[in-house]
Amino acid sequence: MMDVKVTLEQFLQLAHRRCQRSWAELSAGLRLSHNEFEYLRAIRDQEDKTTDKDNHGQHLQDVVNDLGVRKSSASAMVLKLEDRGLVARFPCRYDARAQHIILTEAGQALLASGERVYEAVARELASELPGSIARAFDQK
């Protein structure tokens, strides 16, 4: 347990370092970069949106907006993920110019594996927090 008072900034720096280190160690066997993980997560998050004529959801522009990247970068990454069988695209029935992007079963499984890295780091960090603060976080 942490016995020294730390600022929120110091805690965030510690958490960031732990996440980076843990990602490097625990994700090595996944063949998944952190950038790829972020795209898979953003695509999954877009899938949760209702898809109708007013809210098409899960288009490339939605992923661009979520991640704050350039459209050309997102397009290249989605193509790479599609070539690896992690995402699939299909035409939008409401906008002929757009395509929906969804995770395949392989993409869902790889994303879940990546999320377990963060779950492990969260448990480790929570074990070092004072009990009252640790309980404030929703732990599984």
TrEMBL record:
InterPro entries: HTH_MarR-typ, MarR/SlyA-like, WH-like_DNA-bd_sf, WH_DNA-bd_sf. Residues 5-140 form the HTH marR-type domain. One of its GO terms (biological process) is response to stress. Gene3D superfamilies: Winged helix-like DNA-binding domain superfamily/Winged helix DNA-binding domain. Pfam families: MarR. GO terms for molecular function: DNA-binding transcription factor activity. PANTHER family: TRANSCRIPTIONAL REGULATOR, TRANSCRIPTIONAL REGULATOR, MARR FAMILY. This is Transcriptional regulator. It comes from Phaeobacter inhibens.
